[in-house]
């Protein structure tokens, strides 16, 4: 397939999805933590964090120079100081970003999200979040009940199996999958590629796909997984793919599209792009560096 | 070698020295992950009791990885001064601990016995020390080193200005570097981790750092933390390289995973001396961290502290300018909590210093560990009290390229003020010339990067 056809398909998938999303956008606005607050302070505006690009240096020698430099890096610079310490505003910005990262790692993907996206939920042998973080080896093994459930509710022998895995950021899964997954499924449909019923795996690592593919006898697994959050964003998701992965698969056999989030590769665009990658994998019976090395 | 000990009515028997060394460790997730950790608190103390009564020759005669099988073991043993070793080989680990902590032992005494100690002996004694023991012992040793300038002099604390950028944008790197300089950060080195590891990109970043250094006549050294093989290409191309960087580990197989071996490090060191731009004699910059062998599955059943000590055995062979420990960077599967990372920082600082190394520390954490800014700041204050030569410095403490948290430019300036420590002497003069510092404190111009424009 040439680049032009690929672009056309991506474009049409995105257009169709935008239309559906516009309709449901209003209904999707979720109530924030405000509903929990006891005293809403009625009419006053809420306190907000200072924007990250504020120059905090007091009486600078050359404010214009600082403004120009400020645009060149997302680093936390030109924040000013009180004594040798950070000012309150930049301190709180850091705390807020770190809190978002911690929440992304420690919170679970919600039941509502799983229901809304028509997934069913299974789990690895990991017991809890602490064990998940300390024992990457256990995050690569499905529990026996989960295997049974996948065989019962999933579909064997389809060409592609999509799995959604919490990984290190539940936030990124909730922020991106609802856009990326439909775009991917629609794109695969355009190519006439069959897709098994997608499901969610709790406490999973990337290599969990190596257990899924042999179980369902599919050609390609597409795995959406939350990336380790940084302070710049906690919403970044990756899509890992492999052709017929199993326990002999190593990392170089996987193809990855990372940095999927609203300020990176937008999820809808990513989903459509993934469909073209999957098509290429099926056509060439390959993934990872083997696929990349093809002309 | 007696591998049995009794605590109250429980008798413990350990399988080997390797098993004993692992079980004597304070709790860390990486030792548990590979199944080496003590199973109960009492077993941990029983192991310490056993270890305290071993003689240094028991450790010498039972290398944790055989001499024949591992070039790191060979390097450590071949570098030992046998006369000094023979004079203390009958000491127990407990006696070694008390000698180190004893009032009569000063830097020279400790650096003398250091030449007779294998890395495993140094690891063993660290396992018998509490946090304050480690700080107390660390404080006795401060080894200075000279590249273009000297860092690690008594009463000084230096910093690496680590102004990384997520796309290696030169203007962004320079902007953030200037911010750090205006806080007094950069006397150890101006050092950038590149996103893309190739000689063209290395040259682009290195030239920008050198331009900055020359334009403002900054008394310091520059480095770009590419793979050592990239830096060797740069040296061959005639690019002015001050410091050659490489991450190192405690086993030959982990080095293979890093794409290095002793021969390559030796060649890089020789090239840096022969072709490099710095005055020297110290021209190498190493980074290490507990758990790196676990993360590449090359630990050979040896615990993280012992492997980290062996890493310092590698480093001291190459007479480095800086050894920086980044134990908090590796992740929760090796070090899980703030307590674990602070313990690791102090152990590593101690073990590095007892190897006679010019040690610094990056008391840091990733966002998927149970550690936060408070742990990181506590680690920094303790390591500064313990006499670390240097820390990192990053805008706001957040590395926007490597996605982890480390000491900020603000922390750097603060810790100097809290403990009355000064920059490297040449660098302090430079800061005074620019009106950034007066009597060891930031002036009103401090923290204003636009003074350079």
Describe this structure in words.
The complex is a heterodimer of chains A (295) and B (453). Chain A contains ten helices and six strands; from the N terminus they run H-H-H-H-E-H-H-E-H-E-H-E-E-E-H-H. Chain A has 295 residues and is an alpha/beta fold. Chain A has a domain at 108-292: Rossmann fold, CATH 3.40.50.11240. In chain A, strands 1-3-2-4-5-6 form a six-stranded mixed β-sheet, with helices on both faces. Helix content of chain B is 45%, strand content 11%. Chain B has 21 helices and 16 strands. Chain B has helices at 17-23, 29-33, 41-52, 56-60, 71-78, 82-88, 93-101, 107-114, 119-126, 131-138, 170-182, 199-215, 228-236, 252-258, 262-275, 292-295, 304-317, 338-354, 373-385, 409-419, 425-433; strands at residues 4-7, 10-13, 145-146, 150-151, 158-161, 189-192, 222-224, 244-247, 284-288, 322-325, 359-361, 390-393, 398-399, 404-405, 437-438, 441-442. In chain B, helix 7 (93-101) packs across helix 9 (119-126), helix 9 crosses helix 18 and helix 10 runs parallel beside helix 18. At the A-B interface, helix 2, helix 3 and helix 5 of A face helix 2, helix 11 and helix 20 of B.
Largest sheet of chain B: 4 strands, parallel
Number of helices of chain A: 10
CATH names the topology of the domain at 108-292 in chain A as: Rossmann fold
Structural class of chain A: alpha/beta
Q: What is the fold-level CATH name, i.e. the topology of the domain at 145-452 in chain B?
A: TIM Barrel
Spatial gap, N to C terminus of chain A: 12 Å
Q: Please name the fourth-level CATH homologous superfamily of the domain at 145-452 in chain B.
A: Aldolase class I
Q: What is the radius of gyration of chain B computed over CA atoms, rounded to a whole number of angstroms?
A: 21 Å
- CATH class wording of the domain at 145-452 in chain B: Alpha Beta
Shape of chain B: globular
Compute the number of helices of chain B: 21
Strand residue content of chain B: 5-15%
Strand order of the largest sheet of chain A: 1-3-2-4-5-6
Under CATH, the homologous superfamily of the domain at 108-292 in chain A reads Ethanolamine ammonia-lyase light chain (EutC)
- The H/E string of chain A reads HHHHEHHEHEHEEEHH
Named at the architecture level, the CATH assignment of the domain at 108-292 in chain A is 3-Layer(aba) Sandwich
User: Average pLDDT of chain A, to the nearest integer?
Assistant: 90
Q: In the CATH hierarchy, what is the class of the domain at 108-292 in chain A?
A: Alpha Beta
Family (chain A): Belongs to the EutC family.
Keywords (chain A): Bacterial microcompartment, Cobalamin, Cobalt, Lyase
Protein name (chain A): Ethanolamine ammonia-lyase small subunit
Subunit structure (chain A): The basic unit is a heterodimer which dimerizes to form tetramers. The heterotetramers trimerize; 6 large subunits form a core ring with 6 small subunits projecting outwards.
